[in-house]
From TrEMBL:
Superkingdom assignment: Bacteria
GO terms of molecular function: copper ion binding; oxidoreductase activity, acting on the CH-NH2 group of donors, oxygen as acceptor
InterPro entries linked to this entry: Ig-like_fold, Lysyl_oxidase
Origin species: Actinokineospora spheciospongiae
GO BP of this protein: carbohydrate metabolic process
Name of this chain's protein: Lysyl oxidase
Length: 259
């Protein structure tokens, strides 16, 4: 929980005392690739006068294992785009609309939606099941292995707002996360009454990107929110955060509190 006075600042410092103007529920989110091939995206724009890049999705060949190495070679046009995020915590190119999170009632009604502004995708960690996934790279001297080295070092052209191309993606058996300390990794629960809710994280919700299985694109946690003194809602003057307690975790499901 984070009490803030600077509501206009997406990465405002948490207050330890004094009057707060907003209460933010901060959390880390993560996305794993457990599929049959790498998620690989290439962005391109014709010049620096065009503010966003078009994005294409590339697929590994099932015949010879080759992986496209450029926007021009990528097979699938997408409806998404990439843009340069200048905020201090980012300063790199973001894939737009990839991830969204919401606070929902147990019945599925949306109370609070995120303000997240995109994602920079790369191989940040090995997934818990990497050792048993059939498509995990076993040989570094393969197209997948060489791509993995690129994605492990990927910073999405950090500090390069003049870039004309960008590469993003996640290898099989790898994942990417955004820490709770990063801009917009929060939901504003100032106006949320005491009660039980779901925090739902969804990737590729509009199915802009092609996948073999869309059924596991949402995960959720059930939480309890209790304002101080047993109050139903926030007091007029907020000096203390509500108590937020994790009730359960529901990986791969968009509902948790009602189960």
């Amino acid at each position: 929980m984070c009490l803030v006075s600077e509501v206009e600042n997406p990465n405002a410092a948490c207050m330890s005392r004094g009057r707060a103007r907003a209460v933010r529920l901060r959390f880390t989110t993560a996305e794993d690739n457990v599929g049959a091939g790498p998620l690989l995206l290439y962005g391109w724009r014709p010049g620096v006068d065009v503010p966003t890049m078009r994005v294409r999705q590339a697929f590994q060949s099932g015949v010879d294992g080759r992986i496209p190495d450029s926007f021009a070679a990528a097979q699938q046009a997408t409806a998404t785009s990439a843009y340069y995020e200048p905020a201090q915590a980012h300063q790199h190119w973001h894939l737009m609309g990839f991830e969204h999170f919401e606070l929902r009632t147990p019945g599925g009604g949306v109370l609070v939606a995120d303000r997240k502004n995109g994602f920079c995708l790369g191989d940040r960690y090995a997934t818990a099941d990497a050792g048993v996934l059939p498509a995990v790279v076993r040989d570094d001297d393969t197209p997948q292995g060489r791509l993995g080295r690129v994605l492990a070092a990927n910073t999405c052209n950090m500090h390069d707002p003049a870039a004309l191309t960008v590469t993003q993606g996640i290898s099989v058996g790898r994942g990417d996360d955004y820490r709770y300390t990063v801009d917009f990794q929060w939901l504003d629960i100032t106006a949320v009454p005491s009660g039980t809710y779901d925090v739902v994280n969804t990737v590729n919700g509009d199915r802009t990107l092609r996948e073999s299985d869309y059924g596991n694109n949402s995960s959720s946690i059930a939480i309890s929110v209790r304002w101080p003194g047993g109050a139903r809602s926030a007091p007029e003057v907020i000096t203390r955060a509500p108590q937020v307690r994790l009730l359960r975790s529901c990986p791969g499901r968009d509902r948790c509190a009602g189960t």
